[in-house]
Amino acid sequence: MNTTLTPFYDKQVQCLHCEAKFPSTKIRSSFVKVDRYDKDFCPNYQSEELNPLFYHVFVCPQCGFSFTDDFSKYFPPKTKEEIKNNVSDRWVHQDYGKQRTVRQAIDSYKLAAYCAEIKKEKKVTIAGLYMRIAWLNRKMKNKEQEQRFISFALHNYLECYLNSDYHSSQMSELKIMYLIAALSHQIGETEQAVMYLSKVIEKQNTTTERTIIEMAKDQWQEIRGEKSTA
After folding, report:
1. Share of the chain residues as helix, strand and coil, in percent rounded to the nearest 5
2. Could you read off the pLDDT of 6-17 as tens digits, one per residue?
3. If you average pLDDT over every residue of the chain, what do you get?
4. What angle is formed at CA 193 by the lines to CA 187 and CA 194, rounded to 5 degrees?
5. Is residue 2 pLDDT above 60, yes or no?
6. Which residues contact 18 (CB under 8 A, 6 or more apart)?
7. Is 80 exceeded by the pLDDT of residue 227?
8. pLDDT exceeds cutoff 70 at 59
9. 27 forms bridges with which residues in the sheet?
10. From CA 72, how far away is CA 121, in angstroms rounded?
11. Strand segments (E) across 15-54
């Protein structure tokens, strides 16, 4: 009997919308190796074939509703009807449950972001979806689409920060502020980047998140260097 573990396995998922059960491919964490992280926390994996970003979204093959573990189970009034009208009634059966290409991964995130907007998920959740679309476009060296989705992510992180809707998520206030700065810098919003870097660095004596503080200081120096050579 062959007991060799493979990197991929099927996770049984229940659709939050129609409650259908379906399998969705995931990657065993023991096979995932990260080389480094970009300034906006984008992970760079040793093997792009074993990239867990590809499998973060669950796409229901029955109704098309697409979601992640970050989605709440609660549907605000009338949103189920909106999802039925705008997603399920237009859904052409597709199976995203197998191994995905980067293009299929991007499509799954776009579906999830669309569903999240209709369902009125927290801004921190929506921002995370747009952020990952930007990362995957970075892998494809599609600068225009990367910048477009960074802008969408930034807009949602700003709303998230201003409305404090990151509570009960894995994101801290400091990390949100740092991301706003990093994303602002990437799309040329330098003044906004500096303002939020200042907010982060001001917390250096009251936070345990030392890595974020050091990353903010590095970004600050980088922006100063850019200004001095401009």
Report:
1. 55, 10, 35
2. 999 999 999 999
3. 94
4. 145
5. no
6. 60, 62, 63, 65, 88
7. no
8. yes
9. 8
10. 7
11. 21-27, 34-37, 43-45
Let me know: does 49 contact 148? Beta carbons within 8 Å: no
Per-residue pLDDT at 70: 95
Q: How far apart are CA 29 and CA 9, in angstroms?
A: 11
Burial per residue of 110-135, b for 16 or more beta-carbon CB atoms within 10 angstroms, e otherwise: bbbbbbbebbebbbbbbbbbbbbbbb
**31: confidence class by pLDDT, cuts 50, 70, 90:** very high
| Measured distance CA(57)–CA(169) in Å, rounded | 17
Backbone angles phi, psi at 21, to 5 degrees: -105, 140
Token code pair at residue 64:
């098309």
Q: What is the DSSP string of 102-161?
A: HHHHHHHHHHHHHHHHHHT--HHHHHHHHHHHHHHHHHTT-HHHHHHHHHHHHHHHHHHH
Q: Phi/psi zone of residue 131: left (φ > 0), alpha (ψ -120 to 50 degrees), beta?
A: alpha
pLDDT > 70: percent of the chain: 98
pLDDT band for position 160 (cuts 50, 70, 90)? very high
d(CA 179, CA 159): 13
